[in-house]
């Protein structure tokens, strides 16, 4: 997202993207194309008008907002904080109230799409908050970091509630595809045949999920980061369960997904391998008497080892 935004700013000869990252070295790619890195959040906020937050969870968001409001109140007025993190709706409401006390505006703007979609600048932004704030930030989203902005009104909790619901849907569909792929392998039908059916009958979303598994992306190469970390997937699906409980309903499928994701996390901790949110595929493989690692993963890792030698 940051790379795409900085590229866009360069193309329109606008001031460079200014940013802060807790792990400074991860900002190097943005610096390499003209981004300006700051050493602290207060220093960053003092020098910008619009701030996008993209972190891992509610705790991080709350910590950042609490740090932002330590800035001189006169400098905070008219600032716009856009939170793209997947958080509980209650956190969005808290962040809006906290910032408005200091004259700053807030948008809840969680994004939908895995790493490859983000790289292509085709994320879907679910945005809620003041209309003027949405209009102010939209030119930096559509055609830059995302393909579309879904406007959900002024109530910021609607954006994060939609994202939590969307993550439940993704987790449930991922589970279905994983189960079907294990069935295809165990029955002799063949993973390629099933993938052909998904492509012809069910569309690109389920097909891409299938390829995430059959292509070995559910278990990235050693040292590589997953498209969506299994720990974040557990957090995201758990948020959906929490939202359902608050609404007086239940998500039984989400509980199945969580059980398999937690089992995958256990495998990750035992082996020291980072796993993707699609790694329930490995768990289901094991429970069907197959290896957690598919032949595709084994061949890739074997080649990686040979190249290293």
UniProtKB/TrEMBL annotation:
UniProt-annotated catalytic positions: 163
One Pfam family of this chain: NAD_binding_2
InterPro entries in the record: 6-PGluconate_DH-like_C_sf, 6PGD_dom2, 6PGDH_NADP-bd, HIBADH-like_NADP-bd, HIBADH-related, HIBADH-related_NP60_sf, NAD(P)-bd_dom_sf
Protein's UniProt keywords contain NAD: yes
Origin: domain of life: Eukaryota
Signal peptide feature range: none
Keywords for this protein: NAD, Oxidoreductase
Domain 6-phosphogluconate dehydrogenase NADP-binding, first and last residues per copy: 16-151
Domain 3-hydroxyisobutyrate dehydrogenase-like NAD-binding: 161-283
GO-annotated molecular function: NAD binding; NADP binding; oxidoreductase activity
Record carries keyword NAD: yes
Family under the similarity heading: Belongs to the HIBADH-related family. NP60 subfamily.
Protein name, UniProt field: 6-phosphogluconate dehydrogenase NADP-binding domain-containing protein
Annotated organism of origin: Aspergillus brasiliensis (strain CBS 101740 / IMI 381727 / IBT 21946)
């Amino acid at each position: 997202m940051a790379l795409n935004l900085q590229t866009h700013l360069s193309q329109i000869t606008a001031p460079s993207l200014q940013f802060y990252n807790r792990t400074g070295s991860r900002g190097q790619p943005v610096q390499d194309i003209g981004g300006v890195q700051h050493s602290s959040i207060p220093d960053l906020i003092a020098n910008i008008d619009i701030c996008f937050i993209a972190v891992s969870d509610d705790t991080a968001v709350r910590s950042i907002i609490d740090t932002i409001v330590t800035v001189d109140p006169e400098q905070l007025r008219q600032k716009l904080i856009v939170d793209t993190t997947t958080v509980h709706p209650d956190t969005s409401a808290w962040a809006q109230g906290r910032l408005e006390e200091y004259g700053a505006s807030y948008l809840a703007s969680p994004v939908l799409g895995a790493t490859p979609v983000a790289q292509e600048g085709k994320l879907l932004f679910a945005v809620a908050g003041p209309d003027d704030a949405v209009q102010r930030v939209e030119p930096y989203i559509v055609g830059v970091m995302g393909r579309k902005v879904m406007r959900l009104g002024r109530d910021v909790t609607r954006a994060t509630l939609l994202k939590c619901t969307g993550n439940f849907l993704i987790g449930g569909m991922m589970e279905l595809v994983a189960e079907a792929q294990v069935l295809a392998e165990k029955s002799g039908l063949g993973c390629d045949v099933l993938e052909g059916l998904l492509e012809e009958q069910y569309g690109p979303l389920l097909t891409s999920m299938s390829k995430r598994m059959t292509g070995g992306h559910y278990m990235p190469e050693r040292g590589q980061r997953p498209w969506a970390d299994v720990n974040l997937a557990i957090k995201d699906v758990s948020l959906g369960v929490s939202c359902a409980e608050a609404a007086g309903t239940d998500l039984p499928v989400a509980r199945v997904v969580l059980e398999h994701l937690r089992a995958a996390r256990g495998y990750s901790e035992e082996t020291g391998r980072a796993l993707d949110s699609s790694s329930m595929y490995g768990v289901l493989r094991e429970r069907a008497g197959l290896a957690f690692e598919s032949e595709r993963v084994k061949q890739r890792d074997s080649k990686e080892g040979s190249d290293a030698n």
